[in-house]
């Protein structure tokens, strides 16, 4: 190699040793007769020193080197007189005897420092420079370390990693597919996998009873801050298992990662929360359980008392916020504006202040007397000094709005510490979801999910009530992963497709290969997939999954560095037998 050491490894113990380092110029400064250059590589930063008195030629050459030049310097390790204890190499410097410029650099478009002056768009355009910055580099290394630990754990448990194809036929995971035109078969298309779901099930039929894969998946969805059109899953499947075997195995994986990545010994079993309870108490199937502030249903107590707004609704519920009795008019107005935002969807906010002096002041004093309000307080376990925040409306929508209000209050009160982790399993999801628009059921997870045995009888009578043998791992309000015990019986799978509105021909056409495989000894099986990018983001402690992807797309799904999506040449379109019709 061109170097003897990296820029992060030299210490006082190497005092007097001749070394050669290679790296990028972080910065250089001239102080009287001396020039100091910080040289950086992936491993760290080391100070080089050039002395005008002892080697004027070398020193004046060094003064010509600019930021981000790539250099190779040879010299002697020396104890520094002015030590910098903030960096691991800060007790030494290299007295340079010779150096070479390996490559020059233009002035970079933003400063390559911990805190940069470059905005997001600019940094994404020059992502390769952004990746030189410590905070970004650290994230990419964290991602690698997590992937390594995932592989170590699963290897120990005798899982094997098997690749599945990327050019496939559409998989129904609920999102739109990205498609790839076939040149050889004009008018035919491949789809990119939303997940390797059917392939991993086929691998179970092949007898590979413990499969995993760190795999790219593709979903053509509308963009949101925490979404990327291509993302990575830790995709897993096991044979001869029941739900608890899967939960135990992957709770083990989560605990392994907590230990290795966050040095956190998670001893207790993860709580298991039925879906219905999650909705009732937290208003969401992704509850953030770092704090309580549970939602309470007060429909019975508050309805039918002559307050029109409440009397006509399906559901009334609220949360009790500690210390909220002190909230000013302005603050309450701001909270009202918050719940009224279109994406939250509430029509208004009712409050009850439980003042410290024992008096009660509410926004509905005209309609509810003290005795009635005391009942609400009792139900919500309010105490003097608290405030009750109440929303009313359609049950599902109101619970959703309450879940958002709860999170907002949790944020405002600092109850969502990034270094506290509260994992849990959400279980017993409904198997099906009724869709008003298409007037049919959709699979809540996917069509290969089996029902809980106790609910089989409901298939004929009340399909909407069937519970799925499905589970999600949720950590701090983030859905980290989800999976299910699968259907492995041809008849049952056919019945499921029928419930989902597939004609036998459609089912055959799309999933004939799977149904066919079920004829040849399909073992009972189940699995799970984790959103790897999200998990790394959670452990890394910042908000955007883009921070943990080497070359991410922006929020509009664009890669601004390579500038894509982009148009195809007429020649390419012709070869693919495609024509672009302007909308
Ligand atoms: N394929 C599913 C998904 O991507 C996960 C699973 O059921 O294993 O959500």
Describe this protein's structure.
A hairpin with a 2-residue loop joins strand 2 and strand 3. This protein is 29% helix and 24% strand. It has 583 residues and is α+β, with helices and mostly antiparallel strands. An eight-stranded mixed β-sheet has the order 6-9-10-22-21-20-17-11, with helices on both faces. The protein has a five-stranded mixed barrel with strand order 1-2-3-5-4. It has three domains: 12-103, Nucleic acid-binding proteins (OB fold (Dihydrolipoamide Acetyltransferase, E2P), Beta Barrel); 136-272 and 422-570, Bira Bifunctional Protein, Domain 2 (BirA Bifunctional Protein, domain 2, 2-Layer Sandwich), CATH 3.30.930.10; 291-412, 2-Layer Sandwich (Gyrase A, domain 2). It starts with 17 loop residues before the first strand and ends in an 8-residue tail after the last helix. Helix 4 packs across helix 6, helix 4 crosses helix 16 (532-540) and helix 14 packs antiparallel against helix 15. It is built from 17 helices and 22 strands. The mean pLDDT is 95. The protein is globular. The longest helix has 23 residues, at 134-156. Aspartic acid binds next to strand 21 and strand 22.
How do the strands and helices of this protein lay out in sequence?
Layout: E1 18-31, E2 34-41, E3 44-51, H1 56-62, E4 70-79, E5 92-103, H2 120-125, H3 127-130, H4 134-156, E6 160-161, E7 179-181, E8 189-191, H5 197-205, E9 210-218, E10 230-239, H6 243-262, E11 272-274, H7 275-282, E12 296-297, H8 299-302, H9 308-311, E13 315-321, H10 329-340, E14 350-354, E15 360-362, H11 370-380, E16 387-393, H12 395-412, E17 423-427, E18 432-435, E19 440-443, H13 458-461, E20 470-475, E21 478-485, H14 490-499, H15 504-517, E22 525-531, H16 532-540, H17 570-575
Parallel strand pairs: 3-5, 6-9, 11-17
Antiparallel strand pairs: 1-2, 1-4, 2-3, 4-5, 7-8, 9-10, 10-22, 12-13, 13-16, 14-15, 14-16, 17-20, 18-19, 20-21, 21-22
The structure holds aspartic acid (ASP).
């Amino acid at each position: 190699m061109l170097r003897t050491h990296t820029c992060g490894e030299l210490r006082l113990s190497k005092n007097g040793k001749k070394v050669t380092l290679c790296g990028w110029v972080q910065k250089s400064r001239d102080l009287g007769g001396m020039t100091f250059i910080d040289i950086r590589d992936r491993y760290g930063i080391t100070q080089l020193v050039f002395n005008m008195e002892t080697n004027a030629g070398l020193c004046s050459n060094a003064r010509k080197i600019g930021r981000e030049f790539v250099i190779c310097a040879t010299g002697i390790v020396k104890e520094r007189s002015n030590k910098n204890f903030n960096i691991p190499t800060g007790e030494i410097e290299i007295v340079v005897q010779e150096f070479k410029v390996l490559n020059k650099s233009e002035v970079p478009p933003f400063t390559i420092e911990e805190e940069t002056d470059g905005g997001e768009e600019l940094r994404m355009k020059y992502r390769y420079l952004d990746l030189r910055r410590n905070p970004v580099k650290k994230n990419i290394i964290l991602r690698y370390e997590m992937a390594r630990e995932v592989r170590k754990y699963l290897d120990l448990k005798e899982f094997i990693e098997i690749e599945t194809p990327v050019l496939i036929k559409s998989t129904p995971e609920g999102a739109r597919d990205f498609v790839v035109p076939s040149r050889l078969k004009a008018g035919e298309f491949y789809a990119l996998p939303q997940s390797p779901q059917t392939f991993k099930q086929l691998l179970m039929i092949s007898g590979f009873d413990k499969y995993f894969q760190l795999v790219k998946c593709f979903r053509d969805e509308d963009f949101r801050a925490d979404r990327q059109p291509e993302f990575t899953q830790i995709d897993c499947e096991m044979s001869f298992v029941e739900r608890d075997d899967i939960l135990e195995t992957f709770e083990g994986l989560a605990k392994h990662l907590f230990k290795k990545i966050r040095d956190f010994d998670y001893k207790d079993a993860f709580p298991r929360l039925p879906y219905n309870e999650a909705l009732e108490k937290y208003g969401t199937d992704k509850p953030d359980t770092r704090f309580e502030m549970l939602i309470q249903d007060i429909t019975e107590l508050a309805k039918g008392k002559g307050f029109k707004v409440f009397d006509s609704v399906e559901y009334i519920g609220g949360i009790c916020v500690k210390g909220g009795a002190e909230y000013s008019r302005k603050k309450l107005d701001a909270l009202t504006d918050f719940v009224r935002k279109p994406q939250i969807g509430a029509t208004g906010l009712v409050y009850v202040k439980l003042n410290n002096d024992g008096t009660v002041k509410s926004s509905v004093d005209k309609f509810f007397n003290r005795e009635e309000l005391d009942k609400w307080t009792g139900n919500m376990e309010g105490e003097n000094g608290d405030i009750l925040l109440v929303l009313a409306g359609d049950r599902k929508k109101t619970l959703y709005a309450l879940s958002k209000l709860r999170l907002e209050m949790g944020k405002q009160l600092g109850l969502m510490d990034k270094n506290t982790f509260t994992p849990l399993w959400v279980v017993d999801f409904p198997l099906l979801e009724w869709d008003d628009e298409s007037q049919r059921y959709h699979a809540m997870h996917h069509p290969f999910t089996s029902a809980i045995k106790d609910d089989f009888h409901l298939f004929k009578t009340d399909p909407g009530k069937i519970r799925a043998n499905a589970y999600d791992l949720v950590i701090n309000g983030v859905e980290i992963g989800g999976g299910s015990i699968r259907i492995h019986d041809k008849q049952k799978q056919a019945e499921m497709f029928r419930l989902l509105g597939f004609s036998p021909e459609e089912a055959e056409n799309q999933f004939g290969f799977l149904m066919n495989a079920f004829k040849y000894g399909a073992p009972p099986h189940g699995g799970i997939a984790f959103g790897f990018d999200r998990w790394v983001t959670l452990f890394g402690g910042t908000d955007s999954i883009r921070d943990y992807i080497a070359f991410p797309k922006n929020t509009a799904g664009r890669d601004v560095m390579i500038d894509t999506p982009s148009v195809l040449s007429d020649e390419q379109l012709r070869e693919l037998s495609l024509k672009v019709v302007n909308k």
